[in-house]
Design goal:
By secondary structure, the protein is of the alpha+beta class. It has two domains: 1-103, Alpha-Beta Plaits (2-Layer Sandwich), CATH 3.30.70; 118-244, Alpha-isopropylmalate synthase LeuA, regulatory domain (Double Stranded RNA Binding Domain), CATH 3.30.160. The protein contains five helices and nine strands, in the order αββαβαβββαβββα. A three-stranded mixed sheet has the order 1-2-3, with helices on one face. A three-stranded antiparallel sheet has the order 4-5-6, with helices on one face. The chain has a three-stranded antiparallel sheet with strand order 7-8-9.
Length: 249
Amino acid sequence: MTGPFAARPPEPGIPPRTSGPSFEGAPDPWGVRRAENLLTSLEGVLSARVVTTPLGEVSEVHVLAQAGLQPKQLVRNIESALLAQLGLKVDHRKISIAQTAEVRPIEVVEHGVVRERAMRRAALFEALHVGPGRRPHRVIITVSLSLLGRVETAEEESSDTPRSKVEGAARAAVSVMDKLLSDDSVALEGAKIIDAFDREFVMVAVQGLGGRESLLLIGTAEIKESAERAAVFATLDATNRWAEARRPS
C-alpha cells in the first residue's frame, strides 16, 4: 500500500491503532488522526472514524453527518479529500455514512413545546381595550379571545370606578366565552379585587352550564399591568379547564 498511512511505520513496541478512539498526545503511527481531522473539517460531517489493519491499510471509514446531505455526494467528497490532501485512495465501498435526525437549537424546541401546550388550551387571550364611554364617567371595555383560530370580541360599558371596570372586563370576557362555546353556556356570578400574600388579585366566579350540568367555576389572576387585564385572565383561569372538555373538535 502506498500513501501517508503506509509511510509511517509504527514506533517500536507500539501496536498500530485498529480500533478505539484517538487520544490527544497518543501515538498515531499510521496518520489515522490526521485523516479523521481532515474528514471532520468537511461541510456537514459531525464526526469521523478511520479503522486500519495492523499493516496500516484502511479497512473502514465511518462518518456521522447532518441530515439532508446526499450520501453519494458525501462519499465522493470524502474520497476526493483523502486523495487530494493525504494522497490516500480509499475504495468507496469501505466508506459508511450515518445521518442524524434534524437537530434544532434548544430554544427553538422549547418555543415549539410552549406553543403546542398553549394551543391545547380552550381559549387564548387576544386583546383588551379600555376607552371612553358614551357618557361622562363611563368606559367601554372590549375583550377579544380566540378558540382554535376563531376570534370573537365583546364589549361592556361600565362606570369609571375600579370595581365596576373589573366587573365589566370579566363580563366582556364571559360574553366572548359564551360565543365561542356554541353548545354550552357561561354566565358571570361576580368579580372582585382581593388582597392576599401582600399582593392584589382579581377573583372571578363563573357559572358553567352544559346540558343538565351546572357548575360554579372560580379563577384568580394577580394584578400586574391592570385590574381589567387581570379580570380577563381570571375568567380564563376559571373557564379554560371546564371549556376545554367541551370545545368543538
